[in-house]
Amino acid sequence: MSSIKTNADVQRVQAAMQHNPITSSVAEFVGNEHIQRLQLSFDIDKLQQALQECLSRVAFMGNMQDQGFAALPLTQRPGQTEWTQNDLSGRFWTRGDEHYVEQPRENLVDESEFSEFNPTFAGTYFEQVMATLKQHFPIGRTRILSKPVYNCNSWHRDPEPRIHIPIHSNPGALFVVNHHVTHLPADGSVYFTDTRAYHTALNGGEQSRVHLVAALAYEQITE
Question: In terms of Cα–Cα distance, which of 8, 158, 16 is closest to 89?
Fold first, then answer.
């Protein structure tokens, strides 16, 4: 047995105690290949005003709001008037228990079907945002997703990547993809998130976190 004073574990901890950890940059965006800030951007004041206008017309939807998942569907199938829970969430894969076995949840959604802007929200700034996004990317289901305080999504992967536009955020609202975690400020920026990798969103702050989330209708992963 090695001496306590020369034990590698003790030396490692003592070395760490020679420096204070970084605490400032965690309130900023730090990207990698899975989370990228794009050049495209929108007016944050208009985004927040549009959210208020939408919520004055209809409340957040979904039967999992008590678990922290609330949605407003900005896009729909042509003529659609009702939404199932699967429309609001859709297929994902997760390793949910101690067995570490990956399992699918819910049904696969054809993102290309959601080609129509929801007329409930006609005339809002979101309509302009959607038109702009469609000029750049193949856009599928687009939802406003709200996450309450002290709440976290499941650890999962999706069939396709997503665009995120934060509308309301706080420094405790974080996005994790694989081994990378960062804050996404609500400043009008547009973010590409490769949610085909394992990921989660969490809100450890004291205010709700609201994002516009657009699925990118590229070829999906099906298993």
Answer: 158
Best CA proximity match to 181, nearest among 189, 171, 167, 166: 171
195: amino acid identity, one letter: T
Which residue segments constitute the domains of the chain, with CATH numbers given? 27-77+111-216 (2.60.120.330)
Burial of 52-90, coded b for 16+ CB within 10 Å and e otherwise, reads: eebeeeeebbbeeeeebbbbbbbbbeeeeeebeeebbbb
Confidence grade of residue 88 (pLDDT, cut at 50, 70, 90) = confident
Distance between CA 196 and CA 100 in Å, rounded?
18
Instruction: Kindly report, residue by residue over 100-143, the tens digit of the pLDDT.
Output: 999 999 999 999 999 999 999 999 999 999 999 999 999 999 99
* Structural contact between residues 189 and 41, judged by C-beta atoms closer than 8 angstroms: yes
Contact (CB, 8 A) for 199 and 184: no
Contacts of 98 (CB under 8 A, 6+ apart): none
Residue 211: is it exposed, middle or buried by C-beta count within 10 angstroms (0-12/13-18/19+)?
buried
Q: Please state, in angstroms and rounded to a whole number, the distance separating the CA atoms of residues 72 and 214.
A: 12
Cα dihedral sign, 6-7-12-13: negative
DSSP output for 187-216: SSEEEEE-TTS-EEEEE-SSS-EEEEEEEE
Q: Name the token pair of 127.
A: 């309509």
Q: What's the whole-model pTM score?
A: 0.93
